[in-house]
């Protein structure tokens, strides 16, 4: 009987875990994830110091998917790629903090839509300013050419070419 080509030699758990950690340390997926977390944390921290401590990174799923005239919860969930229950909890959080309101949909009295409140609109305006300021920091760190190249590369990896 021929040996199985795919059979691995028995290795100790500490060896295989160390090997996995070393391989993952420079793996593109975790690097992108760590960079994303660092960027989002910097933006969230700055917004929190400006009085928006109730807004978490996860709440971007609501803000980034709202239409100017309001959006139904099911549509928010679809756009964000999360469950209706998850988007419902995020909307509940933002509603309790005064950033959004839930009101009847004028096109369908049985449905509701999520709309920005004046506080939510002010937050979005401030968040756009903070994002631009953080991007300016990236530009100072990486340089204009490298930042532009990074942006092009990330769009290519995301399939946004």
What do you see in this structure?
With 161 residues, the protein is mostly helical. The protein has one domain: Arc Repressor Mutant, subunit A (Orthogonal Bundle), CATH 1.10.10.10. Helix content is 62%, strand content 9%. It has 7 helices and 2 strands. It has a two-stranded antiparallel ribbon with strand order 1-2. β1 (100-105) and β2 form a beta hairpin. α2 (28-49) crosses α6, α4 packs across α5 (84-96) and α6 (118-142) crosses α7 (144-158). The mean pLDDT is 91.
Gist of the model:
With about 160 residues, the chain is mainly alpha-helical. The protein has seven helices and two strands; from the N terminus they run H-H-H-H-H-E-E-H-H.
- Give the terminus-to-terminus CA distance: 50 Å
Low-pLDDT regions: none
Mean pLDDT: 91
**Count of DSSP-assigned helices:** 7
The portion of residues forming beta strands comes to 5-15%
Count of individual beta strands: 2
Strand order of the largest sheet: 1-2
CATH topology: Arc Repressor Mutant, subunit A
Q: CATH H level: which superfamily?
A: Winged helix-like DNA-binding domain superfamily/Winged helix DNA-binding domain
- Round the Cα radius of gyration to an integer and report it: 22 Å
Helix-strand string? HHHHHEEHH
Helix content: 55-70%
Global structural class: mainly alpha
CATH class reads Mainly Alpha
* Biggest sheet statistics: 2 strands, antiparallel
> What does the overall shape look like?
globular
**CATH architectural category:** Orthogonal Bundle
